[in-house]
């Protein structure tokens, strides 16, 4: 159902220790780190944690194919959402769209098996 979640934290180093310790209980470890972010992942999903002002949560839903991404986008607009990014390629194997829901939460549909 969920592909990934993005969050912003005020203190990356403190959050790194917190999430490293907590997620280790579930067998989830850091898979990427740079000066301003860290990613924890398993074989399918991930959580991206970036340093900044906590202000939003980003939900990314898994889509089966590009058609589902396109339908998600059109349906989101029809239901009162606002475009935050039309369906497009974000990389060779990443096709997604972004909608702001009724409360301005950023939601995304992503297909990773683009052909």
Automatic annotation (TrEMBL):
InterPro entries listed in its UniProt record? Glyas_Bleomycin-R_OHBP_Dase, VOC_core
Source organism, top-level taxon: Bacteria
All copies of the VOC domain together span 1-112
Transmembrane stretches, by residue range?
none
Q: Which SUPFAM superfamilies does the record match to this protein? A: Glyoxalase/Bleomycin resistance protein/Dihydroxybiphenyl dioxygenase
Q: Quote the PROSITE patterns the UniProt record gives.
A: VOC
Please report the name of this protein according to its UniProt entry. VOC family protein
**What organism does the record attribute this protein to?**
Pseudolactococcus carnosus
